[in-house]
Design a protein that fits this description.
The protein is α+β, with helices and mostly antiparallel strands. The chain has a single domain, classed as Pnp Oxidase, Chain A (Roll), CATH 2.30.110.10. The protein is built from 5 helices and 10 strands. The model has no long low-confidence stretch (mean pLDDT 92). Bound molecules: flavin mononucleotide.
């Protein structure tokens, strides 16, 4: 059972969860939504606001939902959901309804942002800042370039204000 919690007291636990597990980035609204596995995200503070930043390649189906909506969610599922994380990170919502395939049911946070009810931690984020990563800005060539060997665009960076957090007992993580 997810319950709202206060970021001021739970930020350390959020960071701990992100350090150990991948997450689902879910975007859309009550009429249509998609989710995908993300390995890269940060939570912290920017412009005096609690923020979460995610990185989405333009070829992802999720990208269109991120562009269309002002709110999205980042969720951590209990560790046993390995198959869900694998499917949501390898199949596209263009080809399969990942929620149905994984038995995920949706609830909605601020701005009608969808999130899976099976999560143990959910951050609801309001889009603040969007910028494309730029190859010209890379300062550590070999480490970073290896992520861009295959065809595909550089990630778009989305920094969102964390406006709500839901947790089902984050202290147990
Ligand atoms: C562990 C893992 C982490 C991933 N992290 C990201 C990420 O941070 N950003 C991204 O754009 N894709 C990431 N992906 C790839 C997407 O999850 C994958 O391409 C997915 O199928 C896209 O689904 P969609 O087309 O429905 O949006 C990751 C995949 C895995 C398995």
């Amino acid at each position: 059972m997810l319950r709202p919690v206060d970021i001021r007291t739970h930020l350390p636990e959020v960071l701990r969860a992100f350090g150990g597990q991948n997450a689902l980035l879910t975007a859309g609204d009550r009429t249509a939504a998609n989710t995908m596995t993300i390995g890269w995200c940060q939570a912290g503070r920017l412009w005096n606001l609690p923020v979460c930043t995610v990185y989405v390649r333009p070829e992802r189906y999720t990208y269109g939902f991120m562009e269309a909506q002002d709110y999205s969610t980042v969720s951590v599922l209990p560790a046993e959901h390995r198959k869900t994380m694998a499917l949501c990170g390898s199949q596209s919502g263009r080809d399969v309804d990942k929620f149905a395939a994984c038995g995920l049911t949706l609830a909605y946070g601020a701005g009608d942002a969808p999130y899976p009810e099976q999560a143990e931690l959910v951050l609801v984020c309001r889009k603040l800042y969007v910028q494309d990563m730029d190859a010209a800005c890379v300062r550590a060539e070999p480490e970073i370039a290896r992520f861009y060997g295959e065809p595909g665009g550089w990630h778009r960076i989305y920094t969102g204000q964390i406006v709500e957090i839901y947790s089902s007992g984050i202290e147990e993580l």
